[in-house]
Amino acid sequence: MKTLINFVLTVLCFSFVIKEEIVQREVLITKESFLYIKGTSNINTFTCVYDAATLSRKVPVRFTQDNNTMHFKNVHMQLKNTGFNCGNRGINNDFHELLQTNKYPNINFELLSATHYKNSVEAQVAIEIAGIKKQYKVPVKTNGELAPIEGVLCINITDFGLTPPKKMMGMILVREDIEIVFGFDLQTVK
Question: Alpha-carbon distance 34 to 29, whole Å?
Fold first, then answer.
């Protein structure tokens, strides 16, 4: 009798364990996608646009689903600092000096999760700039399909140990807060 009770309890315990199913897909980021960094100084604004042609690539996507949240496994995107164009050579040089491109040639993004609410989506991402990695939550606009996915992530560059450049003996000051603006046009690869 005791053996039967133990067996029934064991079966009941395992019946409540939910198996985590890993979904695997390959997604193409199309050349219609965009990404740029927008900043300001005390006298002007600047925009550093990433070369859209180099954004286009196939990305393997693995995730599990837990209610309204997708948990991603190793979904990375590496952006070469040299892929950004800020409009002129002087600003490009300042940009690369700020990011320490000689030592850290890439900005690394990792998609950690995406939570779907009634009328919105919030993504959790990890960003590595100049060897320092930080996590952020970013609201994402989507039409409920795979594409387009758009958003704006506001960060403070001092969080990554970066010092905003000062030019003309301190008369031109770049502000610490910048925006990373993105729009990814995605297609599932069959």
Answer: 10
* Residue type for position 99: L
Structure tokens at 57: 């690539």
Distance between CA 124 and CA 167 in Å, rounded? 35
Give the residue among 187, 189, 174 at the shortest CA–CA distance from 37. 174
Q: Is the pLDDT at 19 greater than 90, yes or no?
A: no
Mean pLDDT estimate for the chain:
81
**19 Cα distance to chain centroid:** 28
Q: Measured at the alpha carbon of residue 85, what is the angle toward residues 83 and 86, in degrees to the nearest 5?
A: 145
Predicted pLDDT at 61: 85
Instruction: Enter the pTM of the model.
Output: 0.80
Task: Check if the beta carbon of residue 135 is closer than 8 Å to that of residue 112.
Answer: yes
Instruction: Using alpha carbons, select from 190, 79, 166, 175 the residue that is nearest to residue 125.
Output: 79
Token duo for residue 106: 């890439």
First to last CA, the chain: 54
Listed residue (155, 150, 161) closest to 179, CA to CA: 155
Determine the pLDDT at residue 20. Answer: 62
Residue at 22: amino acid letter? I
Task: Read off the pLDDT band of 164 (50, 70, 90).
Answer: confident
| Architecture in CATH for domain 19-188 | Beta Barrel (2.40)
